[in-house]
Amino acid sequence: xxxxxxGGPGIRLSSxxxxxxxxxxxxxxxxxxxxxxxxxxxxSVVVPAVNEELTITEFVEWCKEGLQASGLRGxxxxxDSSTDRTAELALMxxxxxxxxxxxxxxRAYIDxxxxxxxxxxxxxxxxxxYDFRQLGLFVDELRSGYEFAMGSRWAxxxxxxxxxxxxxxxxxxxTTWILNRVYSSHFTDxxxxxxxxxxxxxxxxxxxxxxxxxxxxxxxxxxxMGLRTTEVPVTxxxxxxxxxxxxxxxxxxxxxxxxxxxxxxxFVYGAEFFMLKPGIFLLIIGLLLSLPLSxxxxxxxxxxxxxxxxxxxxxxxxxxxxxxxxxxxxxxxxDYSGAARDRWTxxxxxxxxxxxxxxxxxxxxxxxxxxxxxxLSHGGRLPVASSALDHLAVSGLLFMxxxxxxxxxxxxxxxxxxxxxxxxxxxATTTDSxx
Length: 435
Fold this sequence. Notes:
Layout: E1 11-14, E2 30-34, E3 43-49, H1 56-69, E4 74-80, H2 86-93, E5 96-99, H3 105-112, E6 120-123, H4 136-143, E7 148-158, H5 165-183, E8 195-198, H6 199-205, H7 214-224, E9 229-236, H8 246-250, H9 254-269, H10 271-290, E10 298-300, E11 303-305, H11 307-333, H12 339-347, H13 350-377, H14 388-415
Parallel strand pairs: 3-4, 3-6, 4-5, 7-9
Antiparallel strand pairs: 1-2, 2-5, 6-8, 7-8, 10-11
Helix pairs in contact: 1-2, 5-9, 7-9, 9-10, 10-11, 11-12, 11-14, 13-14
């Protein structure tokens, strides 16, 4: 029989449903369910909470009102790592509570995924800043075929005093603009905490962020996955009297830290933006500066382009080539569909690319050999500075680097297709009945 849990009568300790064995994993997550629990919900409202006893009861009531007004059969799942009565009050109000150690906002959603039962998931905060009485708007969009419904405070309304001026007029607009430029997306509010997603898409997304950056990770992966995405206008309220926001609890540096880790997520998942096209540009400029000078200096309009210009060109070409190769690999690693890998393996077929790389390296080595021959045949003396041999030797170095880089890139590109078996995970499973 299920064992009684602290928090008042009518509360029991359970797994996903009362008739299943209780599961305890190494992550320390335990699910508590209320007596008036429902089965087979269509919608799961999944919300992390840390010390929100001031608002949690009313928040659960808002969720119930939203479900009832929309005619939805849903569950409310609070992912709790509080030290106050948040879990107890949520249970008494009729919500499920997943007790977990305090490990970050993103980790709370990761912990919740195995316990979500609804086809559609609505996420947000338990502090009454987002109006969950309007959660039906998200479910309507998901039912209509969208896989990800992003809330937007800018498309909805923002109560006066609900957001610091720095966030409202600088931080959120700036980071949203950056993300839209990097990913060619069209979001208006990437930091809105209220959003909806299908459970199937959430599982495929495979969230990994442990902290605030989960919000950006979701948005970025929705673009990478090509999810059918829309925006839903939301109402954003200021904190209730007596409640202190999590940013204020963490100190004045918390908003800046959150902004930085969100930018870090944008740059990591969008690494190709900074490498692929800029790399091609630098490579072209570098080759134009270096290859025409392979046989000596060139004078154009009274300006002499000599060995030093050639060295600048070689430097730009190498930086550009490496940047291009890294951008290709970043695109492959961040691609859910596999289309990027298919495209680049067609551009760089293995045998042809390896042989071409080795051939280019051999040409470069041959050009270096001419300079070595001169050096040995002239008693260890180098030719006059800026001679044709010097220019050819620099071109030889460029060819050797290009050839070897192409060889290494080809190996790494095809290594991305290597697959291994699933890692073994140890999960201890216990049951309420004796073995």
